[in-house]
Design brief:
Number of strands: 0
Helix content: over 70%
Number of helices: 9
Shape: elongated
Structural class: mainly alpha
Number of domains: 1
Oligomer: single chain
Radius of gyration: 20 Å
CATH class: Mainly Alpha
CATH superfamily: Tetracycline Repressor, domain 2
Distance between the termini: 69 Å
């Protein structure tokens, strides 16, 4: 068997393990993604987890990184489809569309564990959220929004969308679309977009 074929098999094994752990963790948190459960869900031996990731913690970190990579790509595609002139409402709607996907349950189930100071997932989660805040801030700059501190506004905006999604996970009866619409109205009014000569519209 050639080296390339071995690499392909190794990559596929790794992908299946991450996919299985993702599904299990989205359903019941990190505790549900035991090495045994991942092996059974993926159809791959338990020893492969240690071989590819070193430990269960290593596997869960890989799951978080893959989940955020997927989420980032999803949001960037939605923002691109909205067009170059899309404002903050496109950002909020992209987040709403993302969190409406069943795969996105992983973000809230693992978040509750990651916030614990001694959690092995904490550093990885913090790093990935920093990247998402960067995405938000970059979008605000690209729209020409009159924001003195894009990073701070990005943090507030991410906190708002995160809060709505957490509330919805705790109480599925919450009308998340109404909350998202209200948030969009608030931010759209507050963050007026400048015109082509860097002046407010209509001036």
């Amino acid at each position: 068997m050639g080296a390339t074929r071995k690499q392909e098999i190794s990559a596929e094994t790794r992908r299946r393990l991450v996919a299985a752990a993702w599904e299990l963790a989205a359903e019941g948190g990190a505790a549900a993604a035991s090495v045994q459960a991942v092996a059974e869900r993926s159809g791959i031996s338990r020893g492969s987890v240690a071989w590819h990731f070193g430990s269960k913690d290593g596997l869960m970190k890989a799951v978080i990184e893959e989940a955020f990579r997927w989420g980032t790509d999803f949001m960037l595609e939605r923002l691109a489809a909205a067009g170059p002139g899309a404002g903050v409402e496109a950002l909020i709607e992209a987040n709403f569309a993302l969190m409406s996907r069943p795969e996105a349950h992983i973000f809230s189930t693992l978040l509750f564990e990651a916030v614990s100071r001694d959690s092995p997932l904490r550093a990885t989660y913090a790093e990935q959220y920093a990247k998402i805040r960067g995405l938000y801030a970059d979008h605000l700059r690209a729209t020409g929004a009159r924001v003195a501190d894009p990073e701070a506004v990005a943090s507030a905006l991410l906190g708002g969308t995160l809060g709505v999604n957490i509330q919805h996970r705790l109480d599925p009866a919450l009308d998340r679309q109404r909350a998202v619409t209200a948030m969009t109205d608030i931010y759209t009014d507050a963050l007026s977009v400048t015109g082509p000569d860097n002046t407010p519209p209509g001036t």
